[in-house]
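User: Assemble these into one structure.

Assistant: Restating your components, then the assembled model:
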Amino acid sequence: MTKSRSVEVGSKKVNLIPFSGWMVVFVLIPIALVVYYAFTGVDGFTLTNLKWIWVYRDTLWLSVWLSVIATVICLLLAYPVAYMISRAGEKMQRNATLFIMLPMWMNFLVRTYAWMTILENNGLVNNALRGIFGEDFAGLNMINNHGAIVLGMVYNYLPYMILPIYTALTKIDNSLIEAARDLGSGAVQVFRRIVLPLSVPGIISGITMVFIPSISTFIISKILGGGKDFLIGDLIEDYFLGNSGVVNYNIGAALSLVIMVMILLATYLMNRFDKDAKTSGGGIL
Amino acid sequence: MEKNVVIELKHISVAFDGEQILKDINLTIRNGEFITFLGPSGCGKTTTLRIIAGFLEPDEGDVIFDGKKINGMPPHKRQVNTIFQRYALFPHLNVYENIAFGLKLKKLSKADIDKKVKEMLSLVNLKGFEHRNINSLSGGQQQRVSIARALAVDPKVLLLDEPLGALDLKLRKDMQVELKKIQQSLGITFIYVTHDQEEALSMSDTIVVMDGGKIQQIGSPTDAYNEPVNAFVADFIGESNIVDGIMKQDRVVEFSGHVFDCLDAGFDRDEKVDVVVRPEDVDVVPVEKGMLTGTVTGVTFKGVHYEIIVDINGFLWMIQSTDISYVGDEIGLYIEPDAIHIMKKSEYSGMFGDFSSFSEEFDELSDVNAGVESEGSDDD
């Protein structure tokens, strides 16, 4: 056993006990608790908690749907940006990545509330419009709808799509692009046959890093969705905190478990796809 | 214009960030020739190659291909293909797909592509490797795939940018022979870039020695070795003793305090010149029979011969002899007239000194290897 507690990193032996301890306390025990609550009720072991996922299937479907839309929009926005940054000069690349990370230094809640003050009926945009069209202007309905939730997701998670794609793109050796040109590829062919396939690991990392927080969010839907559109994350929060009068750890845990399994499955499938594409390196997950 | 010319470079100049990389390069390359750009790193050899490939546009001058000016033509429209230093194989494609890459772009039929790929694989001795992953191949195998990939599209000219630099010595020697064989059997022009003078001498029909962005000498390997035009070429190609001399008259030169007969003529009376004597052309004789005498300060056994360092009036000569001498011995040296080569004084005169320290060429070679993660590279 003593052997398995250390690994060789370069020439240094690294003690794994602190890491293992961390993993047990912050990963294993919480997951074990979730599983425990998901399969227990007042009478001990039960599977009935899982049936609630069927009860809330519309909420689950809405969560998946909005997260997919947000992820697709992020990908479409992020790829051209990441590509342009990766082609820019060294200094420009440093500055651009800095600017992309800059909003992440601000609190997530503050950023999301900022959008509320921009979008709401008496917000920045509508007041500006009233300045133009007069005080009687009714205002655009820009908040408390699905669009606002997707906007919140895209805004908050876009950097997590740009950065891994950018990293994957910068890893592509310039000589590969030159070789492709040398063998007869024009610009479009170089992109389609070389750049795009070699950036797939970055795309997969980006999708994972946008989709997972999107599907489990409860803050964005609460602030920008007006509490009207419950997402699966809001449901789970409610069952644990009892916002709607009922506290039930068992149902909350069961819903969490289902989401977790879905995410694991999706990640596994995507990594399989990645391997099939025979791309090497670049991925984060 | 000489017929049979495939590429001409006319007055090519290039500068990066105000630094002149190439200065007025003029060169004619014949069809079917194996031509080598030889020089230390930073001499402009790779830049010249990239200009021919179309990756770089010259600031001044013309690139002529088959009699037509091709300045500004993008690489994918040029009938030249490149073997890259690090092979640049596509990691997401297997061996077959890599070789078929250029053929697919030519919109050939599946059967034609298949036939060509098979033909190329047998040319580079990689039959049966079709479905192998690129990353599972050794450096030598990857190099073969990159050769097959470039030759598959039937280039008129193949550009090779230090293609063997990342291979170990043994494999490099084998690949030299194989490349030469491939070039001869296909009859296409090879433009080869290397800093390895031995590689250049053994493979090329023509060597273009470059330094400081300028062509120093163009000639056959024997010309470059036996008739170097200046101290740079003499030092870079092979080992040389380069000493100051004075041309007393045609075919008579004085150096190291002795007057020698030589074969060179056409210099002014008492003109200062550089004299080159190759280490293997000096005979070791008893002191009383020597034209020059000196003290042995170092002996290294090299297998075929001993490398003997001799101090002659404070200037260290290198001599290669099959007879052993010992440190401290007084020996005589005898030099035949045809072993003496006289060069005009140039900007390189006096730059290379004697054999009291490592030459610059040695530094160049170790520099290049420092950046190469090769399989136990040992340079000559």
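The beta strands of chain A are 6-9, 12-15, 40-41, 44-45.
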